[in-house]
Amino acid sequence: QEPLAVNDPEIFQIIKNEKNRQRHGLELIASENFASKAVLEAMGSCLNDKYSEGYPGLRYYGGTENIDALERLCQKRALDVYRLNKDEWGVNVQPYSGSPANFAVFTGIVGPGGRIMGLDLPDGGHLTHGFFTPQKKISATSVFFESMPYKANQTTGLIDYDKLEENAMLFRPKLIIAGMSCYSRHMDYKRMRAIADKCGALLHADMAHISGLVAADVIPGPFEHCHIVTTTTHKTLRGARSGMIFYRIGEGYNLEKPIKEALFPGLQGGPHNHAIAGVAVALGQAQREEFVEYQKQVILNAKRLAKTLQDFGYEIVTGGTDIHLILVNLRNKNLDGNRAEKVLEAVHIACNKNTCPGDKSALRPSGLRFGSPALTTRGLMEEDFDVVAEYIHESIQLTQFICDKLEGGAKAPLKEFKNALYTDPEVQQRV
Ligand code: PLP
């Protein structure tokens, strides 16, 4: 029973390095957060060691009385946090993460080769919503299901619901996915439900990014209009790395059995009980007043970051944000997100390069996605985000400075750009 530092100093050192990186840098990745000590304690507990294939009361392993209690409590908290009536909604807390949660819904509800429509990846959707390119079916969702993406208006960046309706009536999907990884506005669930009803589809919200905001009731949630809701639990919700599937039950709904069976035994084996405990702890925290205050601040901070960057002359896709993330489009600066991301990383600011509506290549995306959840957890307020915006601005100016030094400018090979970033003395001085 030696501590990690003694038993495996190599791994101990890597974890220590990562902790330092997280502490000393600015974490602006929209899908990340810092889970509480209590969540991490649950994750690092003896629950890791227990197998419990099956569901509470019906397991394929013995010794599961504590696991049954854990899973039932997690389910109860999940329904409570989202203010759901247990006669109308059920929840499955076993998905290992967001991707298997979605895949289980697709296999259980749509069936092999069935049709789905999700927001296209370059317009803010997630890989698992059916992404493919003309050259390749990228996501397993597009390999095993027939996917027709819907898109955002390429000028405004806003979802084109009229076109979605037109295409849905032609394509007749079984499932429409209302969800995103990089779309900064509320989704119009009401309109999407009307479209789903009209074309005979079910409406599935993937609220992975916004599940903390929905839990705190600071933005409109998807439950009123959707049949199925999936989520990750480690983004704005600030829990363990895991997933959940909510589905309607009762009169006229036949969703519970196919989803349950698609997840286990269809896709997964034994549940990750340590993760379920970490989610349950986070769901407990999400019922406290300070969680609501935190989520309000997350939105205020993201809005302030958008405004300050706009004041510096940057274009924010859709003109701003309603939630925790923003997408900056560098196209009008003649720069790309990839190079800017490298400079930000060099100065210890972590964010994502991201495609913007209208981008021709995912390899040369023109955007940068920034999110406020992690730094808000660290206690940063709006004024602090003004300083963060200044650092971002300086980093983008440095990106421009490096491009200007290279013969090919912004089009010079990335290798040359990185070489200048890490070796050019003038650049080093500014870093
Ligand atoms: N759905 C959405 C909307 C996401 O943004 C993500 C992850 O970023 C996922 C699903 C997949 O979650 P995971 O990476 O946990 O599998």
UniProtKB/TrEMBL annotation:
InterPro entries: PyrdxlP-dep_Trfase, PyrdxlP-dep_Trfase_major, PyrdxlP-dep_Trfase_small, Ser_HO-MeTrfase, Ser_HO-MeTrfase-like, Ser_HO-MeTrfase_PLP_BS, SHMT-like_dom. Transmembrane segments: none annotated. CDD domains: SHMT. PROSITE patterns: SHMT. Its EC number is 2.1.2.1. It is an enzyme of class 2 (transferase). Residues 5-392 form the Serine hydroxymethyltransferase-like domain. Keywords: One-carbon metabolism, Pyridoxal phosphate, Transferase. Pathway: One-carbon metabolism; tetrahydrofolate interconversion. It catalyses: (6R)-5,10-methylene-5,6,7,8-tetrahydrofolate + glycine + H2O = (6S)-5,6,7,8-tetrahydrofolate + L-serine. Its cofactor is pyridoxal 5'-phosphate. It holds the Pfam family SHMT. The keyword Chaperone does not apply. Interconversion of serine and glycine. Belongs to the SHMT family. HAMAP family: SHMT. This is Serine hydroxymethyltransferase. The lineage of its organism: Eukaryota, Metazoa, Chordata, Tunicata, Appendicularia.
